[in-house]
Amino acid sequence: MSRILTIAAAQLGPIQRSETRASAVARMIALMRQAKAHGVDLVVYPEAALTAFFPHWWIEDEAEIDSYFEAAMPSNETAPLFEESRRLGIGFHLGFCELAHEEGRRRRFNTAILVDKSGAIVGKYRKIHLPGHPEHRPEAPFQNLEKRYFETGNLGWPVWRTMDANIGMMICNDRRWPESYRVMGLQDVELIVLGYNTPKHNPPAPDHDRLGNFHNQLVMQAGAYQNACWVVGAAKAGPEAGVDQIGGSCIIAPTGEVVAQAVTEGDELVIARCDMDLGRSYKASTFNFAKHREPQAYGMIVERKGAGPLLSA
Ligand code: ING
Predict the structure, then answer these.
(1) What is the pLDDT of residue 143?
(2) Which of 118, 107, 44, 114 is nearest to 84 (CA)?
(3) Would you call 250 a catalytic residue per the annotation?
(4) Does the active-site annotation cover 36?
(5) Residue 1 has what pLDDT?
(6) How far is CA 203 from CA 59, 214, 273, in A?
(7) Ligand 1: lining residues by beta carbon, under 6 Å
(8) Which of 7, 88, 227, 273 has the fewest Cβ atoms nearer than 10 Å?
(9) Is 245 inside any structural domain?
(10) How many other CB atoms are there within 10 angstroms of residue 283's CB atom?
(11) Interatomic CA distance for residues 27 and 12, integer angstroms
(12) pLDDT tens string 109-136
C-alpha cells in the first residue's frame, strides 16, 4: 500500500506593511479551500506568513518590533486557520515570528509549526541559519536584520512521524546549508517542508542577483536528492514593502526532480501527489548512510565554524 501525500506549496504574494493578520489569514484560508478541492492532505505556507517581512527594515521601537511577533499560537487572528484545518481535515505548515518567555526572559525566534489534519500542532522548529547582519546599513536599499530581531533556533532539526510519514522543517536560509538536510536525513526524513522570503537583489552581492531563482532550486534539489526525501518550498513572493521577492515555490522529489512549480509571483497553489516511499530505493543503494558514510572523516565539519588552515599545511 503506497503512502501518497497530496501536498500543496501555498505561495503567497506580498503582505504589505498595512495588511492585517486577519487579511493574510483570509488569503491562506482561501488557498486551503482550493487545496481541499484538489484532495490535498498538507498545505505548506511561507516563512513569516502573517506579516510583511520586517527584517528588511531598521526598527528601534521595541513595541513596534513586537507587533510583528505572535505571543500565542494559535491566537485570535490565527485561530480561524486552525479551525479550517480541522473542518477540512487538512494539515498545514506555517511560518511565523514567535515571541516566547523561556528561562525567565523574553525571546524572539523565526519559527515554523507543523499542524496535523485535526488542527493539532505536531511540531515546532526555530530557524538556525540567520542570514544578514545585526547592524543598520543605511546605505543599502533594504536591510536583512534577522540576526538583530531573532535568536538562533534552539530546537535542532527534529523529524516527526505524522500523516504516516517522517516530516521535518527548515526555514529559508537553512535551505542553503547542506547540514540542515543531513541532520534530518540521519533521522530517515521523508519530507522536508520550508518557507522563504528571498529578495531578488542581495545588496552585499549584486552579481548574484541574476542567479536567484537558479540558486533557490539548486539547493533544494541537492538537499532532496542527497537525502532521498521530498522537499517543498513555499515563497512569500512579489513586491512587498519596497522589496521585490522571488517566487519559484516548488515541490521536489527524492529523485532531485522538480515535479511542480509556481508560475506567478502571487497567491498560488502548487500541487503534487508525493509517494513517501519514492526515496526508498536511494536509501537502499546510493544513499545507504549506514553502509557508505564515513563519519570519522567528517570531523572538521563540526569542529570548525569558518574555513581554517589546510590539512596539508
Ligand atoms: N532570506 C534569504 C534567503 O536565504 C538571502 C537571504 C537572499 C540569501 C539572497 C542569499 C541571497 O533566501 C532569508 N529570509 O533567509
Answers:
(1) 98
(2) 118
(3) no
(4) no
(5) 83
(6) 19, 18, 38
(7) 131, 144, 172-173, 176, 196-199, 202
(8) 273
(9) yes
(10) 18
(11) 8
(12) 999 999 999 999 999 999 999 999 999 9
| pTM, 2 dp | 0.99
Q: Tens of pLDDT along 137-180?
A: 999 999 999 999 999 999 999 999 999 999 999 999 999 999 99
Domain extent at residue 114: 4-283
For atom 1 of ligand 1, the residue with the nearest CA is 198
Domain count, the chain: 1
* Gap from CA of 176 to ligand 1 centroid (Å): 9
CB 148 within 8 A of CB 122: no
171, part of any domain:
yes
Asked if residue 20 is part of any domain, the answer here is yes
Query: Would 290 be classed as within a structural domain?
Result: no
Ligand 1 center–CA 202 separation, angstroms = 8
Q: What CATH number is associated with residue 82?
A: 3.60.110.10
Which of the following is catalytic: 97, 146, 172, 190? 172
Residues 231 and 194: beta-carbon distance below 8 Å: yes
Residue recorded with cell 536560509? 173
pLDDT in tens, 228-275: 999 999 999 999 999 999 999 999 999 999 999 999 999 999 999 999
Tell me the pLDDT tens digit for each residue of 180-225: 999 999 999 999 999 999 999 999 999 999 999 999 999 999 999 9
Evaluate whether 271 touches 248 at the Cβ level (below 8 Å): no
Closest CA to 44 of 104, 96, 91, 99: 91
Interval 45-57 mean pLDDT = 98
Q: Say if CB 110 and CB 127 are below 8 A apart.
A: yes
Q: What is the mean pLDDT of residues 271-288?
A: 98
**How far, in Å, is the centroid of ligand 1 from the Cα of 292?**
32
Active-site annotation holds for 172: yes
Q: What is the number of the ligand 1 atom nearest to the C-alpha of 130?
A: 15
